Amino acid sequence: MPHQNSVLHAMLKHVPRAELDELVKKHRVDERERGFTTWTQLVAMLYGQLSEAKSLRAIETQMKSHAGCLYHVGVGRVRRSSLAEANAHRPSALFGDLLALLMKQAHRGLRRKLEGVAYLIDSTSLKLGARSARWARFSADVCGAKAHIVYDSAADLPVYLALSPANVNDITVAKAMPIEAGATYVFDLGYYDYGWWAALDEQGCRLVTRLKKNTRLTIIETRAVPADGTVLSDRIGYLPARQGKSRKNPFAKPVREVQVRTETGKVLRILTNDLTAPAQEIADLYKLRWAIELFFRWVKQTLKITHFLGTSENAIRIQIAVALIAFVLLRLAQATQTAITSPLEFVRLVCSNLMHRREINDLLQPKRAPPPNPNQFALL
After folding, report:
1. Which residues does residue 219 pair with via DSSP β-bridges, in sequence order?
2. Quick check: helix, strand or coil at residue 11?
3. 359 dihedral zone (left: phi>0; alpha: psi -120 to 50; beta)
4. Residue 235 host element (H or E)
5. Multiple choice CATH, 111-296, 3.40.50.1820, 2.30.30.140, 3.90.350.10, 3.90.1150.10
6. pLDDT above 90 as % of the chain
7. Is 184 helix (H, G, I), strand (E, B) or coil?
8. Which of 150, 250, 122, 246 is nearest to 193 (CA)?
9. Most exposed: 27, 49, 290, 353, by fewest CB within 10 Å?
10. How confident is the prediction for the chain on average, in pLDDT?
C-alpha cells in the first residue's frame, strides 16, 4: 500500500521553507538551538491552533500520541517547557515576517486581478488576563490588545496585521501602515483624521469612510439621485477649513458626501474623494465593511484567538501571528481542491482529520479501511 502523509503534512507544504530559513538567519535564532527549532515551534503552535488544544501541556500530550506522523514533517518530541520558553523569548517579529510573506504569496494566488483593489481597514479587541497587565493594561480592571487588519474582501484574505495594546487609537496604528498607491481604502469613524485622508489622496488612493454627524460641509454642488433608491443625496463640498485647536485642515480638496438609508432605517453620511463614480458604487463600497466584521468573527470563533497560551507580549504576538498563518494556510489548502466550497466546512474537516493520513481533496469521502492481510488467516 503506498505511503500517505497526514492532512497536517499537506497543510505545511504551503509554508515556504527556504524563505523561512532566511528569516531564521535574519533574526539570528536557532544558532545555538540543539533540538527545539523555529520549525518545531511553528508546527507545534499550528497544531495547537488547528486541534483546539487548550494549553501547552495539551499540545505536548496530543503531539506525543502522533509521533509517527510528526516524524514526516520534521518534528521530534515537543515538551511544554521548551514551547513555553520559545514563545516567551524567540522574537515574535520572525512570525510576523513569515505571516507577511505568506499573505503576499496567497494574495497573488487567490486574487484574480489587482485592478480596482479595495482594502478594508479595521481593528478587533482581544481580552487578556490580569497577568498581561504589565504591557496591555486598559483600565484598572481590564487588560487587552487590538489586532489591526487590512483586509482584501475579494481575495477573502488579510494583507496586513499590526498588534497594539488596547489603549492605542486605531488612527495611530493606521498612520504607520503601508499605503498602496491607487488602491481603494474603506474604513469607519475610528480613522477620522483629515491629515491621514490627505496622505491617502496624495498617493492617488480612493477613500470611502463615514462623516460624523456634526461635521459641516460647504456645499458647492448638488447632484440628482433616483427617487426610489437607498441613496438619499449626492453632494460635493469642502471639509471645514479648521480642525480642533484652530489647526489648519490639510485636506483642502473638494470631497463628496453620499447619504444612504440602511435596511434598519439609519441614515449614513458616506464621504469619498471620488467625485465621478456612481453614488450607488460608493454606497456599495462602504457596505463591504461587513466583510471584515465577518472575518473577525470567523477567526475568533474558529481559530480560538480568545484564549491565549501565554501572558507575555511576545507570546501573545506569536499566537496571533500563528492564528493568521493558520488562516492563510487553510485558504491556500482549500484552493487546491473543488469538492468543499464552504470555508467553515473545510476547516472543520481539516481539524477533525488533522493527523489522519488522507488527501486534502478526499476529506469528504469515508475513510477507507486498510486491505485485509492475506496471511492473517494462515494459522486458522
Report:
1. 237
2. helix
3. beta
4. strand 231-238
5. 3.90.350.10
6. 58
7. strand
8. 250
9. 290
10. 88
Which segment of 164-173, 210-219, 236-245 scores lowest on mean pLDDT? 236-245
**pLDDT value for 371:** 54
According to the model, what pLDDT value does residue 377 have? Answer: 45
Q: Residue 316 class from Cβ within 10 Å (0-12 exposed, 13-18 middle, 19+ buried)?
A: buried
Amino acid in position 174: A
Give the per-residue SS3 of 188-208. Answer: CHHHCCHHHHHHHHHCCCEEE
Q: Pull the grid cell for residue 169.
A: 487609537
CA 182, 187, 168, 329 dihedral sign is negative
Query: Residue 25 carries which side chain, given as an amino acid letter?
Result: K
pLDDT over 50 at 1, yes or no: no
Question: Where do the structural domains in the chain lie, given as residue ranges?
Answer: 7-94+315-362, 111-296
What torsion do the CA atoms of 348, 350, 351, 353 make, to the nearest 10 degrees? 120
Cell numbers describing residue 93: 517579529
Nearest-5° angle of CA 321, CA 316, CA 36?
Answer: 75
Length of the chain: 380
Which cell numbers hold the place of 363? 476529506
* φ, ψ for residue 277, nearest 5 deg: -65, 155
- At residue 366, the pLDDT reads 57
For 56, the 3-state DSSP assignment is helix
For residue 376, what is the DSSP state? T
DSSP state letters, 82-129: HHHHHHHHS-HHHHHHHHHHHHHHHHHHH-S--TT-EEEEEEEEEEE-
| Whole-angstrom distance, CA of residue 273 vs CA of residue 154 | 22
Closest CA to 174 of 159, 162, 166, 186: 162
Name the grid cell of 27.
Answer: 533574526
**Which residues make beta-bridge pairs with 334?**
none
